[in-house]
């Protein structure tokens, strides 16, 4: 099997760019040294949870590129997972679905309103949703991983998603 060199000029970004989207800054992020703590979910605890799940933990400059390391490991440092959160009845954050932008530790407004009936339908009316104020939703951007790994990138995306949600379980005291 012939090995071809990677074209780094074609490497997809590890972050989605949200042009002209409204953002809600979060507390409990990179500058906070406070670990997740038990208690009712609020905006600060949600911020800590998201940071410890998939937040940027280190930024390194290299010739021609900036590397943002995350709380969850990633095959090849490509970070193909994206994290969203559906929120309801959470003080300081309007009901809706948000993307988590780890670069500036903020929520990007995707859709506003009450989406809980749709979430319940898509989770086959799982009883846990009746008590939840926030639901983490993961997606994978296949091109971020297949750019380097080809067809094997599919497995890498699933592996990375497992690390992300493993962190959520650990941080979600």
Can you characterise this structure?
The radius of gyration is 17 Å and the shape is globular. The mean pLDDT is 91. By secondary structure, the protein is an alpha+beta fold. The strands form two sheets. It has a five-stranded antiparallel β-sheet. The protein has a two-stranded antiparallel sheet with strand order 2-3. It contains four helices and seven strands, in the order βαβββββαβαα. 27% of the residues lie in helices and 25% in strands. It has helices at residues 43-54, 116-122, 142-149, 153-171, and strands spanning 23-25, 56-62, 65-70, 81-87, 96-101, 106-112, 134-140. A hairpin with a 2-residue loop joins β2 and β3 (65-70).
List keywords for this structure.
five-stranded antiparallel sheet; single chain; 173 residues; two-stranded antiparallel sheet; 4 helices; alpha+beta; globular
Topology:
Layout: E1 23-25, H1 43-54, E2 56-62, E3 65-70, E4 81-87, E5 96-101, E6 106-112, H2 116-122, E7 134-140, H3 142-149, H4 153-171
Antiparallel strand pairs: 1-6, 2-3, 4-5, 4-7, 5-6
* Rounded radius of gyration (Å): 17 Å
Ranges with pLDDT <50 over ≥5 residues? Answer: none
Oligomer status: single chain
Q: Calculate the mean pLDDT score and round it.
A: 91
Based on CA inertia axes, which overall geometry fits?
Answer: globular
Distance between the termini: 47 Å
Total E-strand runs: 7
Largest sheet: 5 strands, antiparallel
Q: What's the arrangement of strands in the largest beta sheet?
A: 1-6-5-4-7
Number of helices: 4
Helix content: 25-40%
Strand content: 15-25%
Structural class: alpha+beta
What is the succession of H and E elements?
EHEEEEEHEHH
């Amino acid at each position: 099997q012939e090995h071809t060199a990677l074209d780094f000029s074609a490497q997809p970004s590890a972050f989605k760019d949200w042009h002209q989207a409204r953002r809600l800054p979060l507390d409990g992020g990179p500058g906070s040294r406070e670990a997740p703590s038990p208690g009712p979910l609020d905006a600060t605890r949600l911020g800590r949870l998201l940071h410890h799940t998939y937040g940027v933990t280190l930024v390194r400059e290299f010739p021609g590129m900036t590397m943002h390391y995350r709380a969850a490991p990633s095959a090849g440092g490509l970070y193909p997972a994206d994290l969203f959160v559906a929120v309801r009845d959470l003080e300081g954050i309007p009901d809706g679905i948000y993307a988590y932008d780890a670069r500036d530790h903020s929520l990007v407004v995707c859709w506003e309103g009450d989406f809980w009936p749709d979430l319940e339908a898509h989770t086959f009316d799982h009883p846990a949703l009746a008590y939840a104020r926030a639901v983490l939703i993961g997606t994978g951007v296949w091109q971020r991983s297949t750019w380097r790994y080809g067809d094997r990138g599919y497995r890498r995306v699933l592996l990375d998603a497992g690390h992300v949600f493993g962190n959520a379980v650990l941080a979600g005291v």
